[in-house]
């Protein structure tokens, strides 16, 4: 069985983002590409979900969690080339999009947005991303 080092994989872990709630890494770097696991509106200090928060506040916390993982590897949101947004209710698309746009002002990443029947911890939004170093 190959270990992560043998495959060129580097695990990225930030103390400023929520601990994984399952057998996965916050992010994995392979070469110049970083694959970020889906983040949601979970407070990184208490590890408690923001279930009753608005879609705007949940989106902000979710993106701040992604940002923290990137920063742990010396990257910024500008390095993100693709995201996948999972929404509990596609009717929240406009409000989520308003907050999302403030994080990606210049050359926003490619994106897919889908409605999911249920998200972990019954939150309203989850976002995963792929980032690339120049």
Automatic annotation (TrEMBL):
Record GO terms (molecular function): deaminase activity
GO CC, any one term: cytosol
Protein name: Reactive intermediate/imine deaminase
One Pfam family matching this protein: Ribonuc_L-PSP
Family per record: Belongs to the RutC family.
Domain of life: Bacteria
UniProt lineage: Bacteria, Pseudomonadati, Pseudomonadota, Alphaproteobacteria, Hyphomicrobiales
